[in-house]
């Protein structure tokens, strides 16, 4: 088999507005998008037109932000949103986060597998352990130790996968004439008993067209790498630069090999944000406008930017609409703790105003390209040709038009350059990710 | 307010086939209906055309039957099925069972409230404690004592309702110009700590158009009556005859009054099954055909029928296609333990063949009318005018055509007789059930 040379794209959906703080206030955006499932369905349809491999809905079961200036960070309910999308799309994959800590394995297994069957094999489960204290409190828990959370995660994934495999592939006979709905000899309990979770099974759901949902992973650290290497076919990673992407991918591949798997069977998707304009100036202006909605946030952002380059910066002592004064610029250095620092420093040295340096997204969680579609494509090409990731989890600034801009402007460039497929490879998420069929638990496959 | 004089109708959906054992084998039925959500959506649309107040999906998280001859008794996933229905209907209520034992209150609160918001206020939660050992085993539990299960149920419902009310009704400001998404002073934690469950909250979901989902209850016994009287606005009951319906409804109303509520605010829906034909003979023939698919089941049904009337009956000693021999008929008597016995005895005495007595559904869980639409309407009218129930939870024998038959043939008769509404009273389930608005926990309303 020749090595796959095309990148893969996941569209990261959050609360329905896009990732930026003030996306909900942008003209055109439905301010009540949070409660209107149409927004998910429409964005997913556009992404499917753009041949995205999947949409991905991140989730934490808690309110974690101040809803005064900003929207919730997560959907009302990820599975209901994906169900709506499933019925109105044909090919695009449907991935959601569900916590291994705050859900019984049987309930996870059931709802994901049901959606996988309904969508004809397009579902993925991003299994996370959740360390958010607000989430734990919603379940009457405290955040457990990392060790315990990961021990629970292993049990959860193993039980879920075993439940998924509790019907043998040919158990569903559907013989109306002979009166045999299923072959009960081929539907067996799993009888798994762990320290934290147990389940008898079977799960009363037949195999989907891809067997069972695809496992994704998103956490970091040694425990996260182990979980990914052992079970995951897809990993959402958050490297800020090429070098950290390379390191993370190598660690993932090594972990997969350690568990006897082919490293090519674990695909990494690097988080990436964009703001597209007809010119670079327009892309930047879009982000300036987003910033302008919340002037109250600017002082803390300026101070944060300062800390990234070794300065104490305050809106009271510098004019943010001008470049950093030369005497301050002289004293800057990139923080070795923050991979975003070199980029911030580079832009400051180019003489951009402090406001514009911020508008370029240097303090964002993911790398940001604010500019033209060609610049966005160039960025993705550079990373992809450096062979540091299998694809990207792209996060629109404003979902309302950002998804369409990417699909209409960036995707054709990537396709022309031979970097992205022009048609879905198959009907299931596994086929479109290029990962092998799996049925039942990893141990028994 | 004058007393409501029209009955209410709930369509009970089970696995997608209808309630009868062999429904999946009937010509016209999609044998794979279990995995095809279209079946739920189509049936719900027909029920909405018939102005049904709600569809109701019962559930137990376990495989409880032998899938050799029969289909699963429950859907792959009730919430996903209701989500599909929500997007393709406008008025009909959407009720699903969720166990208070096998779900964290936060997860119940979240998914039901999200669906309630998405459906614009049409959702109900049938809160049950679940005593099925197979279900408990799927969660690594054993069936707890009745006392403990109900104690958990009280905590669960109180936490869920409090989470539902954690946004004050006017908290969602959505002020794009002023940049105020919500008023955080009006979104508060609930901080409930029980013996079994706890949750901090708030739930990040605004009020729905009916405030929050409607609570339903379905269990029996003193504990069930208490739960219903304290929290429920709707109760699915299973009386077999008018007298037991009257007793159950009186007990429900008394329980509501004991908790300081208006007894009229708790609506009872009596389970009812039907098989409709152009003539009584055709209705019966439909049920004979259903029985004929599973000749293996007949010996045990005959023996069961015998036990209901004080006889040891065997297919080896009687001809089931003939009436019960006179010498046996003489010795029959109605079992005082089984409210279905008088009806069985009556039909045997009328000289029906044993097969036809069974075809009339005398050993079914709910009362059955096999006959014409007029006979079905007569049955419903008799119960309703006896003032022993607020409505019916009707269970089609075969969903494929049974729902349409009821809507096209029975509903117009009920409407002509002034027994059933011709138009929805409002947009929300509460409005269409005629129960008051509630927001937050029962204690704080």
Explain what the structure shows.
Chains A, B: One of its GO terms (molecular function) is oxidoreductase activity, acting on paired donors, with incorporation or reduction of molecular oxygen. Chains A, B: Belongs to the NtaA/SnaA/DszA monooxygenase family. Chains A, B: It comes from Planococcus rifietoensis. The structure is a homodimer of 445-residue chains. With 445 residues, chain A is α/β, with parallel strands linked by helices. Chain A folds into two domains: 8-277 and 372-444, Alpha-Beta Barrel (TIM Barrel); 299-359, no CATH class. Helices cover 38% and strands 12% of the residues of chain A. Chain A has 15 helices and eleven strands. In chain A, the strands form two sheets. Chain A has an eight-stranded parallel beta barrel with strand order 1-2-3-4-7-8-9-11, surrounded by eight helices. A two-stranded antiparallel sheet of chain A has the order 5-6. In chain A, α13 packs across α14. The longest helix of chain A has 19 residues, at 146-164. The two termini of chain A are 21 Å apart. The model of chain A has no long low-confidence stretch (mean pLDDT 95).
